[in-house]
């Protein structure tokens, strides 16, 4: 990936690039059909971004990933980290 991409993401989110890489590495091989795994990822992203996620929003994200089959990639992480 382009280093500028990560600098832009770091600038937009306020999250250190190293932390983003650590999160991405922790997601390698994760089972996103497992509800507990998805909830854990949501909590990690929330803590990393210092943005609380309501129970309702968490449930919507879980359903989107598990039921709808949505993928988590760098673009999705960026959106999760920068959304308000």
Can you characterise this structure?
The structure is a single chain. With 84 residues, the protein is mainly α. It has one domain (3-82). It is 69% helix and 0% strand. It has 5 helices and no strands. The chain has helices spanning 3-13, 17-27, 35-49, 55-66, 74-82. α2 packs antiparallel against α3 and α3 (35-49) crosses α5. It is globular and about 35 Å long. 13% of the residues are buried. The model has no long low-confidence stretch (mean pLDDT 80).
Topology:
Elements: H1 3-13, H2 17-27, H3 35-49, H4 55-66, H5 74-82
Give me a quick take on this structure.
The chain is mainly α and 84 residues long. The protein has helices at 3-13, 17-27, 35-49, 55-66, 74-82. Helix content is 69%, strand content 0%.
List keywords for this structure.
84 residues; single chain; 5 helices; mainly alpha
What is the 3D shape? Answer: globular
**Could you give a short account of the major beta sheet?**
none
Tally of distinct domains: 1
What oligomeric state is this? Answer: single chain
Written as H for each helix and E for each strand, in order along the chain, the element string is HHHHH
Distance between the terminal alpha carbons, to the nearest Å?
A: 26 Å
Unreliable spans: none
- What percentage of the residues does DSSP assign to strands (E)? under 5%
Give me the number of helical elements: 5
Mean pLDDT: 80
What Rg is obtained from the alpha carbons, in whole angstroms? 12 Å
The total strand number stands at: 0
Secondary-structure-based class equals mainly alpha
Helix content: 55-70%
């Amino acid at each position: 990936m382009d280093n500028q991409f990560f600098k832009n993401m770091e600038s937009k989110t306020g999250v250190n690039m190293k932390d983003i890489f650590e999160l991405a590495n922790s997601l390698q091989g994760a089972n996103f059909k497992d509800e507990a795994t998805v909830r854990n990822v949501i909590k990690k992203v929330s803590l990393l971004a210092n943005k609380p996620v309501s129970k309702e929003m968490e449930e919507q994200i879980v359903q989107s990933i598990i039921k709808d089959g949505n993928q988590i990639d760098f673009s999705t992480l960026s959106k999760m980290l920068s959304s308000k």
